[in-house]
Amino acid sequence: MDFNISLKDEAKDFFLYSYFGIVSKDMYNELCRDEKERNIPSYEDFVITKCIDRAYLDFNRTLLFKEEYKGDTKKKKNKRKKALSHLKDTIRISIVDLIDNKIDDYNKWHNQLCQALLEEAEKGNFLIEKEKEMPTQKSKVFYYGQAQKWVNMTIKYVWLLGLIPERFEKELHIPVDRYLIEALLPNCAVPTKNDSEIKPTAFQADKIVPWSEWNKINYNDFQSCCKQSNKEKNKLPLVWENRIWIETAAKYSLEEYFTESNEMETSDNP
User: Fold this and answer.
1) Residues 18, 7, 149, 118: what is their CA dihedral angle, to the nearest 10 degrees?
2) In the chain, what are the domain boundaries?
3) CA end-to-end span of the chain
4) Cβ-count burial of 60 within 10 angstroms (0-12 exposed, 13-18 middle, 19+ buried)?
5) Closest Cα partner for 203 from 185, 218, 221?
6) CA 93 from chain center: how many Å?
C-alpha cells in the first residue's frame, strides 16, 4: 500500500497558528471587531510581527542578557520584552518597506537593517559581551551573525507566506546556521577559532567560530559561496537552501529515531 501524505485544507490554518500564532485575515478582523477601545494593528503588521517573533526563537539562545533581564517571572519577561521591542520595530518597519516595494537595492537594505540592529542592541544596554572566539575580533554584545539570523529567518517566513515581491526573490539571503555550514563544508571557507590555519573539511565545533559570532566579512564571504554552490542557477536561493537545510537536519533526527527504535527492539527481546 502506498503511504503518501496529502495535506487537508485545514492543515494550512492549523500549522500557521501552531507554528506562528497566525490566523486568517477574516478571523483576525472578526476577533478584533469588539476591541474598539484598543489601537489594533493592521493585519499586515500582525503577520510580520508573528514572523519576527518566531525568527527570534531561532537564535535567542545565543543572547546573553544582563541579570536583571534574565528569568521567567512576569516582571523579568516584561522587562526583556520592552528591551527587545525597539529591535523588533526596526525589523517590522523595514520589512513593510520591502513588501510595499519601497526599496531599490536589496543587499544595501539588508546590510543597513543588520547594522541598525547592532546599534540598537548596543544602545539598549541589556546584553552582556560574549567571550570572543577570534582574538582579532572585538567582543560585542550583539554580532552581525545574530542580526543576519533574525533578519534572514524573518524574511524566510515572510517569503514562505508569499508576501515577498517577486523581483526580490532571487536576491534573498540564505540564513546561516550550523546545518548549512555543515552541508557546505569544505567547499565554503568559515572562520576558525584562534585564527587557526587549519581549515576544517567537516563540521568541528571545537575549531569553527559559531555563526552567531561572525562579523560582516565572514557573513558576506559565506553568502558569496552559497551563491556559487547553488548549481541549479534557476532555483531560487531559499528553495535551494530549504532542501539542503531539511536534509542535513533530518539526518540527525532520523539517526536519533533509528537508535531509539533499535534500543526499544532490543529491550523487547531479552
Assistant:
1) -50
2) 9-30+39-268
3) 32
4) middle
5) 185
6) 18
Residue 247: Cβ-neighbour burial (10 angstroms; 0-12, 13-18, 19+): exposed
Cα–Cα distance for residue pair 243/52, rounded to 1 Å: 22
Q: Which residues have CB under 8 Å from 179's CB, separation 6+?
A: 244, 245, 248, 249
What pTM did the predictor assign?
A: 0.90
Q: Are 93 and 109 in contact (CB under 8 A)?
A: no
What is the C-alpha to C-alpha distance for residues 211 and 106, in angstroms, rounded to an integer? 22
pLDDT on residue 63? 94
Q: What does the pLDDT look like over 114-147, one tens digit per residue?
A: 999 999 999 999 999 876 655 555 668 999 999 9
pLDDT in tens, 14-45: 999 999 999 999 999 999 988 776 788 999 99
Q: Which residues of 142-164 are buried (b: 16+ CB within 10 A; e: fewer)?
A: bbbbbbbbbbbbbbbbbbeeebb
Report residue 194 as a C-alpha cell. Answer: 584562534
